[in-house]
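Q: For a teaching handout, I want to show students what a protein-ligand complex looks like in C-alpha coordinate form. Below are the inputs, and the small molecule is flavin-adenine dinucleotide. Please produce the holo structure.
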Amino acid sequence: MTLVSPNSAQHKKAKALKPSSRRPAKELCSECGLCDTYYIHYVKDACAFIHQHIAELETQSHTRSRNLEDPDELYFGVNQGMMAAQKTAPIEGAQWTGIVSTIAIEMLTKGLVEGVVCVQNTKEDRFAPMPIIARTPEDILKARVNKPTLSPNLSVLEQIEQSGMKRLLVIGVGCQIQALRAVEKQLGLEKLYVLGTPCVDNVNRAGLQKFLETTSKSPATVVHYEFMQDFRVHFKHEDGSTETVPFFGLKTNQLKDVFAPSCMSCFDYVNSLADLVVGYMGAPFGWQWIVVRNNTGQEMLDLVKEQLQTQPVMSKGDRTSAVQQSIPAYDKGVTLPMWAAKLMGVVIEKIGPKGLEYARFSIDSHFTRNYLYLKRNYPEKLQAHVPEFAKRIVNQYRLPE
Ligand code: FAD
Ligand code: SF4
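A: Here is the structure, written as C-alpha coordinates, with flavin-adenine dinucleotide included.
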Protein backbone atom coordinates (compact mmCIF):
# COMPACT_ATOMS: atom_id res chain seq x y z
CA MET A 1 0.00 0.00 0.00
CA THR A 2 1.44 3.42 -0.90
CA LEU A 3 -0.05 6.17 1.16
CA VAL A 4 1.29 9.67 0.85
CA SER A 5 2.35 11.43 4.06
CA PRO A 6 -0.22 13.76 5.71
CA ASN A 7 -0.18 17.10 3.99
CA SER A 8 -3.21 19.29 3.57
CA ALA A 9 -1.82 20.86 0.37
CA GLN A 10 -1.81 17.36 -1.06
CA HIS A 11 -5.47 16.87 -0.09
CA LYS A 12 -6.44 20.11 -1.75
CA LYS A 13 -5.01 18.98 -5.05
CA ALA A 14 -7.55 16.19 -5.19
CA LYS A 15 -10.89 17.83 -5.76
CA ALA A 16 -13.99 16.22 -4.30
CA LEU A 17 -16.41 14.93 -6.91
CA LYS A 18 -19.68 16.72 -7.57
CA PRO A 19 -22.69 14.78 -6.23
CA SER A 20 -23.81 14.04 -9.80
CA SER A 21 -20.42 12.72 -11.02
CA ARG A 22 -19.86 9.03 -11.59
CA ARG A 23 -17.83 7.49 -8.76
CA PRO A 24 -14.54 5.66 -9.39
CA ALA A 25 -16.13 2.35 -8.29
CA LYS A 26 -18.88 3.00 -10.90
CA GLU A 27 -22.05 0.96 -10.24
CA LEU A 28 -20.36 -0.81 -7.32
CA CYS A 29 -20.07 2.46 -5.37
CA SER A 30 -21.75 2.25 -1.95
CA GLU A 31 -21.78 6.04 -1.57
CA CYS A 32 -19.55 5.81 1.49
CA GLY A 33 -18.80 9.53 1.22
CA LEU A 34 -15.02 9.41 0.69
CA CYS A 35 -15.32 10.78 -2.85
CA ASP A 36 -17.29 13.77 -1.54
CA THR A 37 -14.05 14.93 0.10
CA TYR A 38 -10.48 15.73 -0.92
CA TYR A 39 -9.53 12.30 0.46
CA ILE A 40 -10.70 11.04 -2.93
CA HIS A 41 -6.99 11.42 -3.62
CA TYR A 42 -6.59 7.98 -1.98
CA VAL A 43 -9.61 6.32 -3.57
CA LYS A 44 -7.73 3.68 -5.58
CA ASP A 45 -6.23 2.37 -2.40
CA ALA A 46 -9.07 3.11 0.00
CA CYS A 47 -12.29 2.18 -1.78
CA ALA A 48 -13.64 -1.14 -0.50
CA PHE A 49 -14.89 -1.99 -4.00
CA ILE A 50 -11.75 -1.07 -5.91
CA HIS A 51 -9.04 -2.44 -3.63
CA GLN A 52 -10.09 -5.13 -1.14
CA HIS A 53 -7.29 -5.53 1.40
CA ILE A 54 -9.05 -6.46 4.61
CA ALA A 55 -6.25 -8.73 5.89
CA GLU A 56 -3.67 -5.94 5.60
CA LEU A 57 -5.97 -3.42 7.28
CA GLU A 58 -6.76 -5.93 10.04
CA THR A 59 -3.05 -6.04 10.85
CA GLN A 60 -2.93 -2.24 10.86
CA SER A 61 -5.98 -1.95 13.15
CA HIS A 62 -5.70 -5.01 15.42
CA THR A 63 -1.96 -5.87 15.10
CA ARG A 64 -2.79 -9.14 13.29
CA SER A 65 -5.12 -10.51 10.64
CA ARG A 66 -7.76 -13.09 11.52
CA ASN A 67 -6.69 -16.65 12.23
CA LEU A 68 -8.32 -18.59 9.39
CA GLU A 69 -7.85 -21.87 11.26
CA ASP A 70 -9.97 -20.64 14.19
CA PRO A 71 -13.62 -21.30 13.24
CA ASP A 72 -14.92 -18.26 15.16
CA GLU A 73 -12.35 -15.87 13.69
CA LEU A 74 -12.94 -17.26 10.20
CA TYR A 75 -16.55 -16.09 10.49
CA PHE A 76 -16.53 -13.16 12.89
CA GLY A 77 -13.04 -11.69 12.41
CA VAL A 78 -10.26 -10.79 14.82
CA ASN A 79 -11.66 -10.72 18.35
CA GLN A 80 -10.75 -11.02 21.98
CA GLY A 81 -14.27 -11.80 23.13
CA MET A 82 -17.96 -11.84 22.22
CA MET A 83 -21.13 -11.57 24.33
CA ALA A 84 -24.87 -11.02 24.16
CA ALA A 85 -26.09 -7.84 25.85
CA GLN A 86 -29.04 -5.56 26.43
CA LYS A 87 -29.23 -2.13 27.98
CA THR A 88 -31.05 -2.44 31.31
CA ALA A 89 -32.75 0.86 30.46
CA PRO A 90 -33.18 0.76 26.67
CA ILE A 91 -33.13 4.03 24.72
CA GLU A 92 -36.58 4.76 23.36
CA GLY A 93 -36.56 4.81 19.56
CA ALA A 94 -33.13 3.15 19.16
CA GLN A 95 -32.70 0.34 16.64
CA TRP A 96 -32.34 -2.25 19.43
CA THR A 97 -31.60 -1.19 23.00
CA GLY A 98 -29.32 1.73 22.09
CA ILE A 99 -25.92 0.30 23.07
CA VAL A 100 -24.28 2.15 20.16
CA SER A 101 -25.73 5.55 21.10
CA THR A 102 -24.91 4.99 24.78
CA ILE A 103 -21.24 4.18 24.10
CA ALA A 104 -20.96 7.28 21.89
CA ILE A 105 -22.55 9.52 24.53
CA GLU A 106 -20.28 8.18 27.29
CA MET A 107 -17.18 8.68 25.13
CA LEU A 108 -18.14 12.27 24.43
CA THR A 109 -19.22 13.22 27.95
CA LYS A 110 -16.18 11.56 29.55
CA GLY A 111 -13.90 13.53 27.20
CA LEU A 112 -12.40 10.54 25.35
CA VAL A 113 -13.41 12.19 22.09
CA GLU A 114 -14.29 15.68 20.89
CA GLY A 115 -16.74 14.58 18.23
CA VAL A 116 -18.69 11.57 16.90
CA VAL A 117 -19.34 10.82 13.24
CA CYS A 118 -22.86 9.43 13.06
CA VAL A 119 -25.90 9.74 10.81
CA GLN A 120 -29.11 11.62 11.48
CA ASN A 121 -31.99 11.83 9.01
CA THR A 122 -33.14 14.85 7.00
CA LYS A 123 -36.14 16.92 8.15
CA GLU A 124 -38.21 15.79 5.19
CA ASP A 125 -37.53 12.05 5.26
CA ARG A 126 -36.98 9.80 8.27
CA PHE A 127 -34.95 7.36 6.18
CA ALA A 128 -32.78 9.83 4.23
CA PRO A 129 -29.29 9.84 5.77
CA MET A 130 -27.62 13.06 6.96
CA PRO A 131 -24.11 12.38 8.29
CA ILE A 132 -22.85 14.78 10.96
CA ILE A 133 -20.05 15.23 13.47
CA ALA A 134 -21.97 15.25 16.75
CA ARG A 135 -20.55 17.36 19.54
CA THR A 136 -23.39 16.97 22.04
CA PRO A 137 -25.25 13.95 23.49
CA GLU A 138 -28.47 15.38 21.98
CA ASP A 139 -26.97 15.21 18.48
CA ILE A 140 -25.88 11.59 19.07
CA LEU A 141 -29.36 10.69 20.28
CA LYS A 142 -30.88 12.26 17.18
CA ALA A 143 -28.78 9.83 15.13
CA ARG A 144 -30.17 6.74 16.86
CA VAL A 145 -31.99 4.06 14.81
CA ASN A 146 -30.81 2.68 11.44
CA LYS A 147 -31.19 4.72 8.31
CA PRO A 148 -31.51 1.55 6.18
CA THR A 149 -30.03 3.20 3.11
CA LEU A 150 -26.55 3.78 1.69
CA SER A 151 -25.16 6.64 3.76
CA PRO A 152 -22.20 8.88 2.87
CA ASN A 153 -20.85 8.91 6.45
CA LEU A 154 -17.32 9.81 5.30
CA SER A 155 -18.53 12.97 3.56
CA VAL A 156 -17.82 14.85 6.82
CA LEU A 157 -14.12 13.91 6.86
CA GLU A 158 -12.89 17.29 5.55
CA GLN A 159 -14.59 18.98 8.50
CA ILE A 160 -12.37 17.06 10.92
CA GLU A 161 -9.16 18.57 9.65
CA GLN A 162 -10.77 22.00 9.41
CA SER A 163 -12.10 21.81 13.00
CA GLY A 164 -8.71 20.91 14.44
CA MET A 165 -10.28 17.95 16.29
CA LYS A 166 -7.72 15.45 17.55
CA ARG A 167 -9.83 12.68 19.14
CA LEU A 168 -12.71 11.24 17.20
CA LEU A 169 -15.23 8.38 17.29
CA VAL A 170 -16.62 7.16 13.97
CA ILE A 171 -19.74 4.98 13.86
CA GLY A 172 -20.22 3.16 10.59
CA VAL A 173 -20.77 0.05 8.49
CA GLY A 174 -18.07 -2.10 6.86
CA CYS A 175 -17.48 -0.30 3.54
CA GLN A 176 -17.29 3.09 5.27
CA ILE A 177 -14.86 1.73 7.85
CA GLN A 178 -12.61 0.05 5.24
CA ALA A 179 -12.14 3.38 3.46
CA LEU A 180 -11.72 5.19 6.79
CA ARG A 181 -8.97 2.81 7.94
CA ALA A 182 -7.13 3.27 4.66
CA VAL A 183 -6.97 7.06 5.12
CA GLU A 184 -6.78 7.03 8.95
CA LYS A 185 -3.17 8.21 9.03
CA GLN A 186 -4.00 11.19 6.81
CA LEU A 187 -6.64 12.59 9.16
CA GLY A 188 -4.18 14.21 11.56
CA LEU A 189 -5.83 12.64 14.62
CA GLU A 190 -4.18 11.64 17.89
CA LYS A 191 -6.73 8.90 18.44
CA LEU A 192 -9.45 7.39 16.29
CA TYR A 193 -12.06 5.09 17.84
CA VAL A 194 -14.22 2.98 15.53
CA LEU A 195 -17.60 1.62 16.58
CA GLY A 196 -19.04 -0.59 13.85
CA THR A 197 -22.28 -2.37 13.13
CA PRO A 198 -22.64 -5.40 10.87
CA CYS A 199 -24.38 -4.56 7.60
CA VAL A 200 -25.95 -6.46 4.73
CA ASP A 201 -28.50 -5.96 1.93
CA ASN A 202 -28.48 -2.19 1.99
CA VAL A 203 -30.37 -0.20 -0.63
CA ASN A 204 -30.56 3.29 -2.07
CA ARG A 205 -33.59 5.41 -1.11
CA ALA A 206 -35.61 4.29 -4.16
CA GLY A 207 -34.76 0.65 -3.44
CA LEU A 208 -35.90 1.07 0.17
CA GLN A 209 -39.24 2.40 -1.05
CA LYS A 210 -39.66 -0.63 -3.31
CA PHE A 211 -38.77 -2.98 -0.43
CA LEU A 212 -41.28 -1.30 1.91
CA GLU A 213 -44.02 -1.29 -0.72
CA THR A 214 -43.46 -4.92 -1.68
CA THR A 215 -43.17 -6.24 1.87
CA SER A 216 -45.15 -4.14 4.37
CA LYS A 217 -48.94 -3.68 4.52
CA SER A 218 -48.46 -0.01 5.43
CA PRO A 219 -45.19 1.25 3.91
CA ALA A 220 -45.84 4.92 4.73
CA THR A 221 -46.01 4.37 8.49
CA VAL A 222 -42.89 2.20 8.95
CA VAL A 223 -40.48 3.88 11.37
CA HIS A 224 -38.08 1.01 11.85
CA TYR A 225 -37.49 -2.54 10.62
CA GLU A 226 -35.12 -5.41 11.22
CA PHE A 227 -34.51 -8.91 9.87
CA MET A 228 -34.69 -10.70 13.24
CA GLN A 229 -33.29 -13.93 14.64
CA ASP A 230 -36.76 -15.59 14.47
CA PHE A 231 -36.54 -15.61 10.64
CA ARG A 232 -39.06 -12.78 10.33
CA VAL A 233 -38.81 -9.15 9.27
CA HIS A 234 -40.24 -7.02 12.11
CA PHE A 235 -41.69 -3.67 11.01
CA LYS A 236 -42.48 -1.10 13.67
CA HIS A 237 -45.17 1.43 12.70
CA GLU A 238 -45.84 5.01 13.81
CA ASP A 239 -48.67 3.88 16.11
CA GLY A 240 -46.31 1.51 17.96
CA SER A 241 -47.72 -1.66 16.35
CA THR A 242 -45.46 -4.41 15.01
CA GLU A 243 -45.95 -6.27 11.73
CA THR A 244 -43.99 -9.44 11.02
CA VAL A 245 -43.31 -11.08 7.63
CA PRO A 246 -41.51 -14.45 7.39
CA PHE A 247 -38.21 -14.35 5.44
CA PHE A 248 -39.46 -17.20 3.29
CA GLY A 249 -42.49 -15.11 2.29
CA LEU A 250 -40.44 -12.25 0.87
CA LYS A 251 -41.19 -11.60 -2.79
CA THR A 252 -37.70 -12.63 -3.87
CA ASN A 253 -38.59 -12.42 -7.56
CA GLN A 254 -39.49 -8.72 -7.22
CA LEU A 255 -36.76 -7.91 -4.72
CA LYS A 256 -33.89 -9.51 -6.59
CA ASP A 257 -32.42 -6.30 -7.89
CA VAL A 258 -33.49 -4.04 -5.07
CA PHE A 259 -30.23 -4.42 -3.14
CA ALA A 260 -27.38 -2.11 -4.12
CA PRO A 261 -24.73 -3.77 -6.37
CA SER A 262 -22.14 -2.77 -3.73
CA CYS A 263 -23.97 -4.83 -1.10
CA MET A 264 -24.40 -7.75 -3.53
CA SER A 265 -20.61 -7.86 -3.82
CA CYS A 266 -19.65 -7.19 -0.19
CA PHE A 267 -17.96 -9.76 2.06
CA ASP A 268 -17.42 -7.57 5.11
CA TYR A 269 -20.74 -8.33 6.79
CA VAL A 270 -19.18 -8.32 10.30
CA ASN A 271 -17.27 -5.04 10.00
CA SER A 272 -13.81 -6.57 10.32
CA LEU A 273 -11.93 -3.33 10.92
CA ALA A 274 -13.94 -1.69 13.73
CA ASP A 275 -12.52 -1.74 17.27
CA LEU A 276 -15.90 -2.81 18.63
CA VAL A 277 -18.90 -4.22 16.74
CA VAL A 278 -22.49 -4.06 17.99
CA GLY A 279 -25.11 -6.03 16.06
CA TYR A 280 -27.67 -8.67 16.95
CA MET A 281 -27.29 -11.72 14.74
CA GLY A 282 -24.97 -13.77 17.00
CA ALA A 283 -27.23 -13.30 20.04
CA PRO A 284 -30.48 -14.96 21.15
CA PHE A 285 -33.75 -13.36 20.00
CA GLY A 286 -34.17 -9.84 21.43
CA TRP A 287 -30.51 -9.50 22.50
CA GLN A 288 -27.67 -7.55 20.93
CA TRP A 289 -24.36 -9.13 19.99
CA ILE A 290 -21.03 -7.55 20.84
CA VAL A 291 -17.63 -8.38 19.32
CA VAL A 292 -14.56 -6.84 20.97
CA ARG A 293 -11.76 -6.79 18.40
CA ASN A 294 -8.93 -5.11 20.31
CA ASN A 295 -8.00 -3.21 23.49
CA THR A 296 -9.51 0.01 22.18
CA GLY A 297 -12.81 -1.81 21.71
CA GLN A 298 -12.59 -3.17 25.25
CA GLU A 299 -11.96 0.35 26.57
CA MET A 300 -15.12 1.55 24.78
CA LEU A 301 -17.23 -1.32 26.10
CA ASP A 302 -15.97 -0.87 29.67
CA LEU A 303 -17.50 2.62 29.71
CA VAL A 304 -21.04 1.20 29.59
CA LYS A 305 -20.56 -2.12 31.43
CA GLU A 306 -22.70 -1.02 34.37
CA GLN A 307 -25.60 -0.14 32.09
CA LEU A 308 -25.75 -3.60 30.46
CA GLN A 309 -27.03 -7.02 31.33
CA THR A 310 -24.98 -9.63 29.54
CA GLN A 311 -24.82 -13.36 28.88
CA PRO A 312 -22.23 -15.54 27.13
CA VAL A 313 -22.71 -16.19 23.42
CA MET A 314 -24.31 -19.56 22.58
CA SER A 315 -24.68 -21.66 19.45
CA LYS A 316 -27.33 -24.25 18.61
CA GLY A 317 -28.48 -26.21 15.54
CA ASP A 318 -26.94 -26.86 12.15
CA ARG A 319 -27.33 -24.27 9.42
CA THR A 320 -25.69 -26.10 6.54
CA SER A 321 -28.64 -27.86 4.89
CA ALA A 322 -30.84 -24.75 5.20
CA VAL A 323 -28.11 -22.69 3.50
CA GLN A 324 -27.58 -25.29 0.75
CA GLN A 325 -31.33 -25.35 0.01
CA SER A 326 -31.60 -21.58 0.00
CA ILE A 327 -28.95 -21.18 -2.73
CA PRO A 328 -30.96 -22.47 -5.75
CA ALA A 329 -34.22 -21.12 -4.26
CA TYR A 330 -32.83 -17.59 -4.17
CA ASP A 331 -31.18 -18.03 -7.55
CA LYS A 332 -34.48 -18.96 -9.19
CA GLY A 333 -36.37 -16.26 -7.29
CA VAL A 334 -38.73 -18.78 -5.67
CA THR A 335 -41.48 -17.16 -3.54
CA LEU A 336 -43.57 -19.40 -1.32
CA PRO A 337 -47.29 -18.79 -0.77
CA MET A 338 -47.73 -16.95 2.55
CA TRP A 339 -49.27 -19.93 4.40
CA ALA A 340 -46.28 -22.12 3.46
CA ALA A 341 -43.85 -19.34 4.35
CA LYS A 342 -45.44 -18.93 7.79
CA LEU A 343 -45.37 -22.67 8.40
CA MET A 344 -41.75 -22.90 7.34
CA GLY A 345 -40.96 -19.93 9.60
CA VAL A 346 -42.52 -21.67 12.60
CA VAL A 347 -40.65 -24.92 11.93
CA ILE A 348 -37.28 -23.29 11.37
CA GLU A 349 -37.69 -21.08 14.44
CA LYS A 350 -38.24 -24.25 16.54
CA ILE A 351 -35.47 -26.40 15.12
CA GLY A 352 -33.33 -23.94 13.20
CA PRO A 353 -29.93 -22.39 14.01
CA LYS A 354 -29.63 -20.12 17.05
CA GLY A 355 -27.05 -17.70 18.44
CA LEU A 356 -23.71 -17.86 16.62
CA GLU A 357 -25.10 -20.58 14.34
CA TYR A 358 -27.84 -18.16 13.20
CA ALA A 359 -25.10 -15.61 12.44
CA ARG A 360 -23.24 -18.27 10.42
CA PHE A 361 -26.50 -19.07 8.58
CA SER A 362 -26.87 -15.43 7.61
CA ILE A 363 -23.20 -15.05 6.63
CA ASP A 364 -23.22 -18.26 4.55
CA SER A 365 -26.46 -17.35 2.73
CA HIS A 366 -25.20 -13.87 1.85
CA PHE A 367 -21.65 -14.87 0.93
CA THR A 368 -22.80 -17.65 -1.41
CA ARG A 369 -25.33 -15.32 -3.05
CA ASN A 370 -22.76 -12.52 -3.39
CA TYR A 371 -20.08 -14.86 -4.72
CA LEU A 372 -22.46 -15.98 -7.48
CA TYR A 373 -23.41 -12.38 -8.22
CA LEU A 374 -19.78 -11.38 -8.59
CA LYS A 375 -18.90 -14.44 -10.65
CA ARG A 376 -21.70 -13.71 -13.10
CA ASN A 377 -21.45 -9.94 -13.28
CA TYR A 378 -17.81 -9.10 -12.53
CA PRO A 379 -15.83 -12.30 -13.18
CA GLU A 380 -12.64 -10.29 -13.62
CA LYS A 381 -12.93 -9.03 -10.02
CA LEU A 382 -13.68 -12.37 -8.38
CA GLN A 383 -10.15 -13.42 -7.45
CA ALA A 384 -8.92 -10.20 -5.86
CA HIS A 385 -12.18 -8.89 -4.46
CA VAL A 386 -13.25 -11.94 -2.45
CA PRO A 387 -11.18 -12.19 0.74
CA GLU A 388 -9.61 -15.55 1.61
CA PHE A 389 -11.94 -16.07 4.61
CA ALA A 390 -14.99 -15.65 2.37
CA LYS A 391 -13.61 -18.07 -0.24
CA ARG A 392 -13.26 -20.71 2.48
CA ILE A 393 -16.81 -20.10 3.68
CA VAL A 394 -18.28 -20.28 0.16
CA ASN A 395 -16.29 -23.41 -0.68
CA GLN A 396 -18.33 -25.39 1.85
CA TYR A 397 -21.30 -25.29 -0.54
CA ARG A 398 -22.29 -26.49 -4.02
CA LEU A 399 -23.06 -23.47 -6.19
CA PRO A 400 -25.01 -23.47 -9.48
CA GLU A 401 -23.13 -22.29 -12.58
P1 FAD B 1 -28.66 2.85 17.99
O1 FAD B 1 -28.30 3.33 19.37
O2 FAD B 1 -30.07 3.01 17.51
O3 FAD B 1 -27.67 3.60 16.96
C1 FAD B 1 -27.66 3.29 15.61
C2 FAD B 1 -26.41 3.92 15.00
O4 FAD B 1 -26.31 3.48 13.65
C3 FAD B 1 -26.42 5.43 14.99
O5 FAD B 1 -25.32 5.91 15.73
C4 FAD B 1 -26.27 5.83 13.51
O6 FAD B 1 -25.28 6.84 13.37
C5 FAD B 1 -25.80 4.54 12.85
N1 FAD B 1 -26.37 4.36 11.51
C6 FAD B 1 -27.68 4.39 11.18
N2 FAD B 1 -27.84 4.15 9.88
C7 FAD B 1 -26.61 3.98 9.35
C8 FAD B 1 -26.13 3.73 8.03
N3 FAD B 1 -26.94 3.59 6.99
N4 FAD B 1 -24.78 3.64 7.85
C9 FAD B 1 -23.93 3.78 8.90
N5 FAD B 1 -24.33 4.00 10.17
C10 FAD B 1 -25.66 4.11 10.39
N6 FAD B 1 -26.73 -6.21 12.67
C11 FAD B 1 -26.70 -7.55 12.52
O7 FAD B 1 -26.38 -8.25 13.48
N7 FAD B 1 -27.02 -8.15 11.33
C12 FAD B 1 -27.38 -7.42 10.23
O8 FAD B 1 -27.68 -7.97 9.18
C13 FAD B 1 -27.40 -5.99 10.32
N8 FAD B 1 -27.70 -5.22 9.24
C14 FAD B 1 -27.62 -3.85 9.36
C15 FAD B 1 -27.83 -3.04 8.22
C16 FAD B 1 -27.69 -1.64 8.31
C17 FAD B 1 -27.89 -0.79 7.08
C18 FAD B 1 -27.35 -1.04 9.55
C19 FAD B 1 -27.18 0.48 9.66
C20 FAD B 1 -27.16 -1.83 10.68
C21 FAD B 1 -27.30 -3.23 10.60
N9 FAD B 1 -27.08 -4.05 11.72
C22 FAD B 1 -27.07 -5.41 11.59
C23 FAD B 1 -26.85 -3.45 13.06
C24 FAD B 1 -28.13 -3.40 13.91
O9 FAD B 1 -29.28 -3.22 13.10
C25 FAD B 1 -28.09 -2.22 14.92
O10 FAD B 1 -27.76 -1.04 14.24
C26 FAD B 1 -27.07 -2.42 15.99
O11 FAD B 1 -27.34 -3.60 16.71
C27 FAD B 1 -27.06 -1.23 16.95
O12 FAD B 1 -28.29 -1.09 17.60
P2 FAD B 1 -28.44 0.04 18.73
O13 FAD B 1 -29.84 0.03 19.25
O14 FAD B 1 -27.32 -0.13 19.70
O15 FAD B 1 -28.18 1.35 17.82
FE1 SF4 C 1 -15.78 6.55 -3.58
FE2 SF4 C 1 -16.81 5.30 -1.40
FE3 SF4 C 1 -17.99 5.11 -3.81
FE4 SF4 C 1 -15.67 3.86 -3.39
S1 SF4 C 1 -17.63 3.41 -2.33
S2 SF4 C 1 -16.23 5.07 -5.21
S3 SF4 C 1 -14.65 5.32 -2.03
S4 SF4 C 1 -17.78 6.99 -2.57
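A: Two things your students might notice: The pocket of flavin-adenine dinucleotide (ligand 1) is lined by residues 91, 94-101, 118-119, 129, 143-149, 151, 153, 171-173, 197-200, 202, 226, 278-281, 288-289 (CB under 6 Å). The two ends are 34 Å apart (CA to CA).
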